[in-house]
């Protein structure tokens, strides 16, 4: 039995429900700064200890046998709490980006090494149904040598929705550069190709339309695009979280024999496989549209159908159990998680410097950690509006 605590009840709500349906997981504590909301919904937490302070959450949770924490707090603030938890003897799941600065990437990795605690990044898009189908095809070797991949994550909304998700002046969504929310675009590429970025260069594009929300959101670029050299020799293109006029996300992997791709706007349940004419096997068509159906995955596939992110949240729950209960090393371990965060951070630096090519540190190597150990530049203000050391949008003259 895994006894786990949730830090951040709002973002963590879908996982709380999955934990409560799992016979191998017990939710023992929930922490959220909105304690009034916790009290209103206390019946939904099935007797878990409720509080608004992280230190109290850890202390009281451990009294109840808590072994791990699931971090679902603000996007850019996971690393400090992950470090606190590991130093308290707890394993950690981080729901979003691992760290907000390069310095935090180093501190997170070294804390995991020093404490020996397990760490897992809960990036769920690689485990959506269509991406699992793509991964299945890639793993057969049908694509040949992998050459190129792309991941595009679009998540826009109308002004009322954007205001709802930006509840305060210094909320992270009001200040996040376009490259920073990289996990849903780069994560599937890394997982499907088994690779990690070595170098990144980026470009962003300013959007006049976003001046309509300038009073409460300051990141008025429409898109941030990054181009990466991966450690397996291939190249990859990915976005952060964009606001482009597109209603879907897409993923594509290209080899020297074939390619495979899907786009959510064309149907979440279909994957397209393409062979070059000179590499096509005799028993294959040049183009095949393949169904991606969770029922193909047996009983677990049926269970995943009701979970969020195309079943991805269910598979993350299974990954958590495999890691914390059975000792399986997760793909998104602390080193790959730190590399993904660093790619987003350096991708934005590149955007600010006209596409400069920058090296992504290999956080397994001390010398490469030392090179960024004191780098704490950030576009995010603290709760008092202080501490910003990088712009969150391109320096375009305001109209």
For the biggest β-sheet, the strand order reads 14-13-12-11-7-10-9-8-15
SS element count, helices: 12
Radius of gyration: 21 Å
What's the level 1 CATH class of the largest domain?
Alpha Beta
Distance between the termini: 58 Å
Helix content: 25-40%
Main sheet overview: 9 strands, mixed
What's the architecture of the largest domain in CATH terms?
Answer: 2-Layer Sandwich
Taking pLDDT < 50 over at least 5 consecutive residues as the criterion, the unreliable ranges are: none
CATH superfamily of the largest domain: Dihydrodipicolinate Reductase, domain 2
> How many domains comprise the coordinates?
2
**What integer is the average pLDDT?**
91
The tally of strands reads 15
Question: Nutshell version of this structure?
Answer:
The protein has helices at residues 13-20, 35-40, 54-63, 78-87, 102-115, 129-139, 159-164, 183-193, 298-304, 312-324, 334-352, 366-370, and strands at residues 2-7, 25-31, 49-51, 68-71, 91-94, 119-121, 146-154, 197-206, 221-230, 235-242, 250-255, 258-263, 270-275, 287-291, 358-359. By secondary structure, it is an alpha/beta fold.
């Amino acid at each position: 039995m895994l006894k786990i605590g949730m830090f951040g009840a709002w973002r963590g709500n879908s996982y709380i429900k999955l934990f409560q349906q799992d016979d191998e997981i017990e939710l023992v504590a929930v922490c959220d700064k909105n304690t009034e909301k916790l009290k209103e919904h206390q019946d939904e937490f099935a007797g878990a200890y409720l509080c608004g302070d992280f230190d109290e959450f850890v202390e009281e949770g451990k009294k109840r046998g808590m072994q791990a924490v699931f971090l679902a707090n603000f996007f850019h603030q996971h690393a400090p709490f992950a470090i606190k938890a590991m130093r308290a003897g707890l394993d950690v799941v981080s729901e979003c980006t691992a760290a907000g600065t390069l310095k935090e990437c180093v501190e997170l990795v070294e804390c995991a090494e020093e404490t020996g605690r397990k760490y897992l990044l809960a990036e769920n898009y690689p485990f959506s149904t269509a991406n699992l189908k793509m991964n299945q095809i890639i793993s057969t070797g049908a694509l040949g040598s992998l050459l190129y991949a792309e991941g595009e994550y679009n998540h826009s909304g109308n002004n009322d929705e954007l205001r709802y998700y930006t509840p305060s002046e210094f909320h992270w969504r009001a200040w996040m550069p376009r490259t920073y929310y990289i996990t849903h675009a780069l994560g599937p590429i890394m997982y499907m190709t088994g690779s990690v970025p070595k170098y990144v260069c980026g470009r962003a594009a300013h959007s006049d339309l976003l001046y309509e929300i300038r009073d409460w959101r300051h990141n008025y670029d429409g898109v941030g695009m990054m181009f990466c050299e991966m450690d397996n020799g291939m190249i990859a293109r990915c976005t952060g979280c964009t606001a482009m006029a597109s209603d879907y996300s897409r993923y594509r992997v290209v080899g020297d024999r074939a390619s495979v791709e899907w786009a959510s706007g064309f149907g979440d349940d279909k994957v397209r496989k393409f062979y070059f004419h000179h590499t096509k096997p005799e028993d294959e068509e040049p183009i095949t549209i393949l169904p991606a159906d969770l029922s193909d995955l047996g009983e677990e596939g049926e269970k995943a159908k009701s979970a969020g992110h195309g079943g991805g949240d269910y598979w993350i729950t299974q990954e958590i159990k495999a890691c914390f209960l059975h000792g399986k090393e997760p793909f998104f371990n602390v080193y790959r998680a730190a590399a993904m965060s660093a790619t987003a951070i350096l991708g934005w630096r590149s955007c600010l410097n006209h596409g400069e090519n920058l090296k992504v540190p290999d956080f397994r190597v001390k010398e490469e950690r030392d090179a960024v150990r004191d780098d704490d530049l950030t576009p995010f203000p603290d709760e008092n509006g202080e501490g910003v050391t990088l712009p969150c949008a391109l320096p375009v003259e305001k109209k």
